Amino acid sequence: MINVRKICLAVAAAALTTAAVGPAEALVRQSWDPSMVAYSYVYYADAAKTIELGYAEDQCVASGSSVYVSSPYIPTAYYDRTPMYVCSGMGPYLPPDWG
Fold it and tell me: Residue span of the signal peptide, if any (predicted)?
């Protein structure tokens, strides 16, 4: 009887630990997936990047159980992009090593 109780407690503890740690680990794995990184953009009129035309940024989009990054139309080939955050099923996430 005592062994059954210990087994049940061990299984419950393992389930709680997995539920608490699992999503965080999933976010860390996604942070290295380039398709899930949202960027901010500064775009320019010339190759020397002397005349700024504007700014834009990616957006995280959730559709059902899928999450993806939607990138804006940049009207020129001359731009700089800077990573902002990682899109995830739990919302935008800033990986600790980006801070």
Answer: 1-26
The alpha carbon of 95 is separated from its chain's Cα centroid by a whole number of angstroms, namely: 8
Residue pair 44/51 in contact by the 8 Å Cβ criterion: yes
Separation of alpha carbons 55 and 13, rounded Å: 49
Number of domains in the chain: 1
Note the pTM of the prediction, 2 decimals: 0.65
Predicted local confidence at residue 3, as pLDDT:
54
3: Cβ contacts below 8 Å, ≥ 6 apart: none
User: Exposed e or buried b for every residue in 39-61, given b needs 16+ CB within 10 A?
Assistant: bebbbbeeeeeeeeeeebebebe
Residue 18 Cα distances to 35, 46, 51, angstroms: 26, 52, 51
Pick out the chain residues at pLDDT < 70: 1-32
Residue 99 within any structural domain of the chain: no
Strand order in the sheet with 79-86: 52-57, 37-44, 79-86
